[in-house]
């Protein structure tokens, strides 16, 4: 496989893996919590690295994922104390964790093979250089494998718990009355979100992941009323965004993940304006039509 | 140890940087109070990220690292982001948090695209542009501090002048409209003030962490009082001391970044306030609950004794 094909493939897998849980984040209105998670898993990565001394250890992924889940727990605990509103709870927890991570990275910069820039923007361009070898056989880039596994896990979770996810998302009280535990589904979703963030951070960087999660799902949300259709549209848009983002990044010779984030913002804006049912343009049109109708009625009256 | 501390304290660079970060902390404490009271604290997070492409594009235009021009670029892209977020949340079905995440990540992505493009076309002047991401307080110059102080005086004057209007608008926007204040004008002034505060903080604290300075001090202050005037003053003081203490701690070590240390100090203030605040703090609450239980038990025992 040529390098650009491999990069495109990784970008597509990362984008779809992020977009799948994103559907439920958007519907539940907790996308900023996922923004917090993507920042705090960095602390998990740094702490786990100090223990394992190996950036590729699976323990690193588990530790970082746990820190992500702990973030959700801490935010919700502070919220429940009723001293602080939800958004402020998010706003005080994640900068603290992120700051500690940055301080640790700069203090031990010599020992840790992590630098701030890589953490922020990732380096999709270098992803094909880290390869998996099995008995001397080249099995393709490592991040492709890692993200494919995460993608499959996300897809399986949505497939098997579709009913539970749907009901706890749209009517948590009803779900609880039926005997589901919304809390368990919520934490399972958040665990997957942080696992995805951990897997994606070295190719996409911690800040842009949230765009990968929210953008496509938001487009899907604006284009349809059915959850199943929303999921398929989301996946489709994620693929389109990542493929065109990679092409544009090569054309302009710039950061790939950043370019995909820009494309994502652009397509979402397009959908926001031109969505046939809920778009801004359609709203304007409807208003104009309603005004004309009103004028006509008034004329017939007078 | 004490001598070491004294040498740091009497160091001119330290005094300059501490004064700069202190004023930034003071301002973000005061202005941030309005943002958190209106439950829009994450707006600051989105705006600070959105300032990055403005900085990059301003640099592309003038090819120099002139702070004032970069700031104007940051203001423009910050205001575009604000307008976009308000348009999305008001005119479509999209919720505030989704709009924030979308705008935050796509603007930040654009910022990285521009900065990388600048890096790939080397220019002697571009060094240090990256420092806006994490901030670099130690690079603060005397004229930077003068600029920060100047903006600070303007912002604080505005707060004092429009005290009534801001207060009314923050707590009851409907009522302030019936009184004849234009909500659009007040809202514009408030967002402009938030954007300005973020931007003067960018160079020293960085785009990612400046939002913590806006939120933290006001949350801490909010635990100690219910009066707006006291909360604003306390938040300003908390922000000021966080800036100074953070700068002090980071100058004690060799390679400790200032911005993150300031955030850690602010967070310590926040968690201490949440725990120890006299009226609504978690510990005070626990003690009161236990006293109530004890009281209830003794009453119960009294009743029992009375019966037998």
TrEMBL record, chain A:
Pfam families, from UniProt? ABC-3
Which key words tag this protein in UniProt? Cell membrane, Membrane, Transmembrane, Transmembrane helix, Transport
Q: How does it sit in the membrane?
A: Multi-pass membrane protein
Cellular location(s): Cell membrane
- Record-level GO BP terms: response to zinc ion; transmembrane transport
Q: What InterPro entries does this protein map onto?
A: ABC_BtuC-like (IPR037294), ABC_TroCD (IPR001626)
Q: Any stretches that span the bilayer, and where are they?
A: 6-27, 36-53, 59-76, 88-110, 144-162, 174-198, 204-223, 230-250, 256-274
Protein family according to the UniProt entry: Belongs to the ABC-3 integral membrane protein family.
Q: Show the PANTHER family listed in the entry.
A: ABC-TRANSPORTER METAL-BINDING PROTEIN, METAL TRANSPORT SYSTEM MEMBRANE PROTEIN CT_070-RELATED
Its name, as the record gives it, is Manganese/zinc/iron transport system permease protein
The species this protein was found in = Alkalibacterium putridalgicola
The lineage, from the top, is: Bacteria, Bacillati, Bacillota, Bacilli, Lactobacillales
TrEMBL record, chain B:
Biological process per Gene Ontology, one example term: transmembrane transport
Compartment annotation: Cell membrane
Superkingdom of origin: Bacteria
Q: What is its main location?
A: membrane
Keyword field: Cell membrane, Membrane, Transmembrane, Transmembrane helix, Transport
Give me the segments passing through the membrane.
Answer: 12-35, 68-87, 99-118, 145-164, 231-252, 258-277
A GO cellular component annotation here is: ATP-binding cassette (ABC) transporter complex
Membrane topology of the entry: Multi-pass membrane protein
Family label: Belongs to the ABC-3 integral membrane protein family.
Which named protein is this?
Manganese import system permease protein ScaB
């Amino acid at each position: 496989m040529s390098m650009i094909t491999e990069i495109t493939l990784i970008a597509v897998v990362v984008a779809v893996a992020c977009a799948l849980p994103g559907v439920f984040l958007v519907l539940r209105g907790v996308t900023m919590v996922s923004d917090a998670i993507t920042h705090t898993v960095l602390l998990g990565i740094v702490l786990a690295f100090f223990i394992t001394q190996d950036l590729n250890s699976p323990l690193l992924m588990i530790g970082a994922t746990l820190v992500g889940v702990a973030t959700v727990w801490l935010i919700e605990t502070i919220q429940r104390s009723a001293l602080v509103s939800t958004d402020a709870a998010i706003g005080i927890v994640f900068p603290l964790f992120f700051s500690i991570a940055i301080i640790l990275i700069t203090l031990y910069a010599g020992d840790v093979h992590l630098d701030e820039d890589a953490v922020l923007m990732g380096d999709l361009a270098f992803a094909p250089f880290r390869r998996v070898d099995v008995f001397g056989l080249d099995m393709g880039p490592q991040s492709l494998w890692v993200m494919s596994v995460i993608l499959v896990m996300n897809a399986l979770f949505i497939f098997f718990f579709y009913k539970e996810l749907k009901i706890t998302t749209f009517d948590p009280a009803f779900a609880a009355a039926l005997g589901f535990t919304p809390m368990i589904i919520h934490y399972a979703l958040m665990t997957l979100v942080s696992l995805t963030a951990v897997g994606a951070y070295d190719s996409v960087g911690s800040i842009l992941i949230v765009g990968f999660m929210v953008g496509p799902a938001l487009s899907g949300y604006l284009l349809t009323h059915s959850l199943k259709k929303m999921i398929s549209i989301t996946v489709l848009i994620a693929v389109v965004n990542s493929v065109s983002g990679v092409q544009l990044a090569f054309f302009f010779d710039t950061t790939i993940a950043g370019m995909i984030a820009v494309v994502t913002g652009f397509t979402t804006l397009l959908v926001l304006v031109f969505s046939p049912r809920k778009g801004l343009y359609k709203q304007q049109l409807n208003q104009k039509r309603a005004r004309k109708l009103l004028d006509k009625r008034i004329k017939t009256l007078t | 140890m004490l001598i070491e501390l004294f040498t740091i304290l009497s160091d001119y660079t330290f005094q300059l940087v501490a004064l700069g970060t202190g004023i930034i902390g003071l301002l973000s404490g005061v202005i941030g109070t309005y943002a958190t009271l209106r439950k829009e604290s994450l707006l600051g997070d989105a705006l600070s990220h959105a300032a990055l492409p403005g900085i990059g594009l301003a640099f592309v235009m003038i090819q120099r690292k002139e702070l004032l021009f970069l700031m104007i670029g940051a203001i423009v892209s910050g205001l575009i982001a604000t307008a976009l977020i308000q348009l999305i949340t008001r005119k479509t079905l999209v919720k505030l948090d989704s709009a924030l995440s979308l705008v935050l990540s796509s603007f930040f992505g654009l910022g990285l695209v521009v900065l990388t493009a600048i890096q790939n076309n080397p220019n002697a002047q571009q060094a240090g542009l990256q420092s806006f991401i994490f901030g670099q307080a130690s690079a603060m110059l005397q004229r930077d501090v003068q600029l920060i102080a100047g903006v600070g005086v303007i912002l604080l004057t505005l707060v004092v002048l429009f005290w009534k209007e801001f207060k009314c608008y923050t707590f009851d926007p409907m009522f302030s409209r019936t009184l004849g204040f234009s909500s659009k004008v007040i809202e514009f002034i408030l967002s402009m003030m938030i954007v300005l505060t973020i931007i003067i903080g960018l160079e020293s604290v960085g785009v990612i962490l400046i939002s913590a300075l806006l939120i933290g001090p006001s949350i801490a202050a909010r635990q100690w009082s219910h009066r707006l005037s006291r909360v604003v003053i306390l938040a300003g003081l908390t922000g000021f001391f966080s800036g100074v203490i953070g700068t002090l701690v980071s100058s004690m070590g060799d390679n400790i970044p200032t911005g993150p240390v300031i955030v850690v100090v602010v967070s310590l203030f926040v968690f201490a306030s949440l725990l120890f605040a006299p009226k609504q703090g978690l510990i005070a609450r626990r003690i009161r609950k236990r006293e109530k239980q004890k009281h209830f038990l003794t009453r119960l025992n009294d009743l029992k004794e009375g019966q037998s």
